[in-house]
């Protein structure tokens, strides 16, 4: 509020001063008495300065800036007509006081006084246009900022809701695996609990982060594959091809883990003889390309996307919008390929998380 008041006074003083200087320059070019014209200009526009300030008080008191254009326009036109009339009467009073003239003089030069009225009316309309134009533009900017803030808040809420579904889903699957091994192989169950603790620690540490380095995701993927390797034994074979240049690339937490989990649960685990998972990453122009390939096939009766993976893809789209590309394809060779391509122009996850 104080900032707006200060800006108003700066604009008011600078605007009217500039206007007086323009009129003074025109008076110098005219053939009349310059001193008399300058005196009249100063007296007249001092009145205009004060009148527009009182006009602003009326605008603020009646909250005209909150009105629609259809309701505002007639009020402004009427106010300008009345103020211009008052301004013209004041000018005539000053002229008659300083330079008394007979009545027939005013009748003879009535057209020039009417011209003066139209001139002052134009000044008031210009003042109103600038004043309301500034406020409407300011309100528009504030509305746009608020709209962007609401969209950002909604997106963050959506991401947090999706995260809250991803991590419990992963925990549920791991606990089922451990439960099945407790009676069969307690030592392997203990090892799984250790790996699970590492994974859950990572999940809890990253729950409030939009992105993490890809290297961190690869570490949690290794722990997950070690967990599943204990359960599936030699039925699970893993091969990786990671470009070192991509290790610091920012990715949403638990996203790569969900791609691998989907490959194990819906691919390798369904094959009696097991199969291989191949994880690869590389930079593709200004994008990061992640590919997870596994032996198996997609189910035809229903979507093979698990709940965790569906939520991970939703999180990707919430962060990157249409810039993210995801595909899950089934080849004739009995191989399923999951490809994710996300924008990456050299940013670090720290800069994106600010």
Description:
A five-stranded mixed beta sheet has the order 2-4-5-7-6, with helices on one face. Strands 1-3 form a two-stranded antiparallel ribbon. Helix content is 67%, strand content 13%. The longest helix is centred in the middle third of the chain and has 73 residues, at 110-182. The protein starts with a helix and ends with a helix. It has 354 residues and is an alpha+beta fold. A hairpin with a 4-residue loop joins strand 6 and strand 7. It folds into two domains: 2-143, no CATH class; 185-353, Histidine kinase-like ATPase, C-terminal domain (Heat Shock Protein 90). Helix 3 (69-98) runs antiparallel to helix 5, helix 5 packs antiparallel against helix 9 and helix 7 (214-232) packs parallel to helix 8 (255-266). The mean pLDDT is 81.
Strand order of the biggest β-sheet: 2-4-5-7-6
Low-confidence stretches: none
Count the helices. How many?
10
How far from one another are the termini? Answer: 30 Å
**In this structure, how is the largest beta sheet organized?**
5 strands, mixed
Which helices and strands, and how do they pair?
Blueprint: H1 2-29, H2 34-62, H3 69-98, H4 103-108, H5 110-182, H6 186-205, E1 212-213, H7 214-232, E2 236-242, E3 250-251, H8 255-266, E4 275-284, E5 287-295, H9 307-320, E6 325-330, E7 335-343, H10 349-353
Parallel strand pairs: 2-4
Antiparallel strand pairs: 1-3, 4-5, 5-7, 6-7
